[in-house]
Design brief:
By secondary structure, the chain is mainly α. The chain is built from 17 helices and no strands.
């Protein structure tokens, strides 16, 4: 009895132990939004800025086309494979801790990339940078959502957060191009350092810690299987044009990827709280959204990779000039992404997704048919169509994919959509870059005729991706139940608080 009285007295003396963590103050909310926006803008800048630096890296490091593919894909693959794990880890141990760790790793890795003496070292540091980026996206969104509990304020805050990502995408080619021409390609990585230091200082002092009420259990086996699936598959696709599909290393990687895929399906099906919930695919809209995300972001990754090479090699532009041209699709993408929800409320989600797919298809077809035409007017048309297609489709695919699911599964579904999209971005770079590498037959990238002929099949694949996106738009906005409250209604408001890929 005496021991029980002592424990009761201790609980009375320390009532905060039984209380939930305090909500952020208005000042801290603003600072939390600022640090999360700075973190996600770093990711956006890094997505597009490095593409402009690829030719300079090729010359300085003696890299091949496959080496440049790895410089992009290594980062995206590392980020994609770990996003679900970092999101669930933040829910368990604290989102602030994971955000700080992500910023530190990303910033340190950026410094190491800037100092990399050769291509193998750069690729290792790019993987480390992707690990840090995986801790920024899902966790920063969760922090913003926790900091702004009221729906209207949360929508505005998420809009600012999304805008920071879009601004990073748009500014990346321009800033990267200027830096490459004036200082060198290594300055693209130094650009991340001041962002990282500022974000870290604000996060440590002002971000309030938060956790999920019911966090999911860790799934290390599932995480390992995902890595063993995507890594060897990307290696086989990127290296096959050089080594041949019959090369032992390529065959082994394909076998490992196939075995990992089979193991992942079998293992995740038996888990109570899997890393990838296969039961979600029973919803045809979610399955269609996954397929659409793969199509949209595979197209996105391949387009930016090929465009950066095309502008600076066959057309002979400087990095700064190429950056200005790449600002056209990146800027249109950012602006249309921010306005996608409002346009969907006016025109209907189905109509906008079909139009977005059509824009992607027209962009790919024009580029394929006019691959040898360097008309600047034609380039503007192609790039505007592409930016509209990606910008309008990406946020609507996310919202349509989770709209019919229970609220307690929407977070996991959004994370899966993001993971599949990021993985497709890397695989798009791998696949379309492999097509270019195969078609060149050893010709230099500066040979305009050889480049146009080699890349034409890739543009037709992008055209097919647009057609698939339009078709899947019809699927994921269909109404399985004739209910006026069905969130898949094509004219229902699109929630703006879902995370874009």
């Amino acid at each position: 009895m005496a021991g029980g009285d002592v424990r009761a007295d201790r609980r009375r003396k320390h009532p905060l132990r039984e209380r939930p963590p305090p909500m952020p103050t208005p000042h801290n909310r603003t600072l939390a939004l600022a640090v999360c926006s700075a973190a996600i803008s770093m990711v956006g800048i890094d997505v597009t800025a490095l593409n402009v630096a690829l030719p300079a890296m090729e010359r300085d490091l003696g890299a091949s086309v496959s080496g440049m593919q790895w410089a992009i894909a290594a980062y995206s693959l590392a980020m994609a494979t770990l996003m679900l794990w970092t999101g669930s880890t933040g829910d368990r141990i604290g989102r602030k801790r994971v955000l700080i760790a992500g910023v530190v790793i990303f910033t340190v890795a950026s410094v190491l990339c800037a100092l990399a003496p050769n291509l193998p070292a750069l690729l290792c540091f790019r993987i480390l940078q992707g690990v840090g980026a995986a801790g920024l996206g899902p966790v920063s969104m969760a922090i913003v959502s926790h900091a702004f509990p009221r729906q209207r304020a949360r929508l505005r805050a998420i809009g600012v957060w999304m805008g920071a990502y879009g601004i990073g995408l748009a500014l990346g080619p321009v800033v990267g191009g200027v830096l490459v021409d004036t200082i060198g390609w290594r300055s693209v990585f130094w650009l991340n350092v001041p962002f990282g230091i500022i974000a870290l200082l604000i996060a440590v002092r002002s971000v309030t810690e938060s956790k999920a009420e019911r966090p999911r259990r860790a799934d290390p086996v599932g995480q390992l299987l995902v890595i063993m699936l995507l890594g060897p598959l990307a290696y086989a696709v990127i290296e096959a044009p050089r080594a041949g599909w019959s090369a032992l290393a390529v065959i082994v990687c394909l076998a490992v990827a196939a075995a990992s895929c089979a193991g992942l399906l079998a293992y995740e099906h038996r888990r109570r709280e899997p890393l990838i919930d296969l039961a979600l695919f029973r919803d045809r809209r979610f399955g269609g959204a996954i397929a659409s995300a793969v199509s949209v972001f595979g197209t996105f990754g391949g387009f930016f990779f090929l465009t950066a090479l095309y502008l600076q090699n066959p057309l002979g532009m400087s990095a700064a000039e190429a950056g200005l041209w790449m600002l056209v699709p990146a800027g249109v993408l950012a602006a249309s992404s921010l306005g996608a929800a409002a346009i969907a409320r006016w025109c209907g989600t189905r109509s906008v997704l079909v139009a977005a797919g059509a824009a992607l298809a027209m962009s790919g077809a024009l580029t394929a048919l006019c691959a040898e035409d360097a008309s600047r007017v034609l380039l503007v048309v192609e790039y505007v169509l592409f930016g509209l297609g990606i910008g309008l489709s990406s946020p609507l695919v996310m919202t349509a994919g989770v709209s019919g699911l229970p609220s307690d599964r929407a977070g996991l579904a959004s994370g899966m959509l993001t993971t599949f999209g990021r993985s497709a971005f890397a695989m798009g770079v791998a696949l379309l870059g492999a097509i270019l590498n195969t078609g060149l037959h050893g010709a230099p990238l500066t040979d305009a005729a050889a480049f146009a002929a080699a890349v034409r099949p890739a543009w037709w694949i992008l055209t097919a991706g647009g057609v698939v996106t339009a078709a899947l738009g019809l699927l994921i906005t269909s109404k399985p139940h004739a209910s006026p409250q069905d969130p898949s209604n094509a004219r229902s408001p699109v929630p703006a608080h879902r995370q874009p890929v």
